[in-house]
Structure formats: C-alpha cells, structure tokens
Write a structure and sequence with these properties.
Largest sheet of chain B: 7 strands, mixed
Structural class of chain A: mainly beta
Number of strands of chain A: 11
Distance between the termini of chain A: 40 Å
Number of helices of chain B: 0
Number of strands of chain B: 11
Number of helices of chain A: 0
Radius of gyration of chain B: 13 Å
Order of helices and strands of chain A: EEEEEEEEEEE
Helix content of chain A: under 10%
Oligomer: heterodimer
Structural class of chain B: mainly beta
Order of helices and strands of chain B: EEEEEEEEEEE
Helix content of chain B: under 10%
Chain lengths: 110, 114
C-alpha cells in the first residue's frame, strides 16, 4: 500500500518563495507527481520526478529523494493565482495508477 | 498532450437512479482511469479501464456499483448505479500524457444526489 503525507494548509505572501513537502511510504515506486488544483476545477499536471534530484520548470521546481521517501515542490515569485491545492501523488512500481496525498491548500496573500 | 472531453459537467440526481459519465479523448490511449473526489478530499482511484478487457477495480469499489465500458481506445464511460447521497462527489477521468510521464484529467463531473 501507499502512505503519502503533506501539510494540510500553508500561507505565503505574494512575491515570496514557498516549499511544500511530501513524504511517502510505498511498497513500490515508479515516479512522483505534483498537481495543482484550483477550487472547482480538475487537477493540472505540474511536474514528474522519477530520479533523485531537482526538476525545474519556470517558477516551479520539484525535488525527489527516493532513499528518504521525500519530495518537495518549490514555488518562486508567488502570485495570487498560485492560491490552490497542491497534490502529491506516487505511482506504484509495477502499475500505472497514482495514489494521491490529501493535498496542501496554499493561500497567497498580498 | 491529450485533450479529454468529459460530460456531463454536473448533474443533480434522485437517490436510487443511475448516471453515466462519458470521457472522449482526442487520441488513442491504452489506459484510462476513473477517480472520485469527495468534498474537501483528495482523489481516490476507482478503476482502470482497459480496452478489450474488464476494468480493474480498486479496493472498496465494485463493478455492480460502478460499471465501466471501454469500447475503443478513445472513449470510456463510468456509471454510478443505485445512487445515494454518499455518492455525491466529483468524478474525473484521466489518461497518460504521451512522452511527459504525467497524466491529464478531464474537467470532471460534479454529482449531487438528493
């Protein structure tokens, strides 16, 4: 089975940097995903890590350490539109299915 | 990445009835996934829809309650049967993004059972 933990809520200020952590305990591992979900909308794919290290994509970066079962999503130069729920998801080793964490609600204030 | 058309976008249904949700993809995909997102919760996988074979259901979900069809590589349906208020959720379909490692989601179906 899978156990995925991430903080429930975070707050930050416009223009700042925020790091959202995710830890996981899984029977198998074949990739970690980050999604952004605005209220009332479907999740939007942000990033994918399967090897250790940092993946950078514009203002968003994602880091993975497989030995520690740990990932983080780093958001730079925060904007008001970044207020959303951020979901960490892990893919099983032998399957294509994703298991999602409960999500971190990020509130960006002026 | 693939574009998914999901419908209906929302519906209000009477308890005891059934609702069929459709997802149409603009390209052929081997696997399609159906998720449920209950109010204030994260996504839970219901089943994997495979073309040419029966769907694979996750623990806690059964075919009699959530029958799935996958007649071809671009289309799938999920039926929520004999609905009760506890079935009120957002239902989403998802497919792999070719070459990017991620998955894209349909726009979701917001179901309210009264």
């Amino acid at each position: 089975g899978q156990n995925i933990d991430q903080p429930t809520e975070m707050t930050a200020t416009e223009g700042a940097i925020v790091q959202i952590n995710c830890t996981y305990q899984t029977s198998g591992f074949n990739g970690l995903f980050w999604y952004q979900q605005h209220a009332g909308e479907a999740p939007t794919f942000l990033s994918y890590n399967v090897l250790d290290g940092l993946e950078e994509k514009g203002r968003f970066s994602s880091f993975l350490s497989r030995s520690k079962g740990y990932s983080y999503l780093l958001l730079k130069e925060l904007q008001m539109k970044d207020s959303a729920s951020y979901l960490c998801a892990v893919r099983d080793g032998g399957y294509s299915t994703l298991t999602f964490g409960k999500g971190t609600m990020l509130l960006v204030s002026p | 990445s693939a574009v998914i058309s999901q419908k209906p976008s929302r519906d209000i249904c009477q308890r005891g009835t059934s609702l069929t949700i459709q997802c149409q993809v603009d390209s052929q995909v081997t696997m399609m996934f159906w998720y449920r997102q209950q109010p204030g919760q994260s996504l839970t996988l219901i089943a994997t829809a495979n073309q040419g074979s029966e769907a694979t259901y996750e623990s806690g979900f059964v075919i009699d309650k959530f029958p799935i069809s996958r007649p071809n590589l671009t289309f799938s349906t999920l039926t929520v049967s004999n609905m009760s208020p506890e079935d009120s959720s957002i239902y989403l379909c998802s497919v792999p993004i070719q070459g990017a490692g991620g998955y894209t989601f349909g726009s979701g179906t917001r179901l309210t059972v009264v």
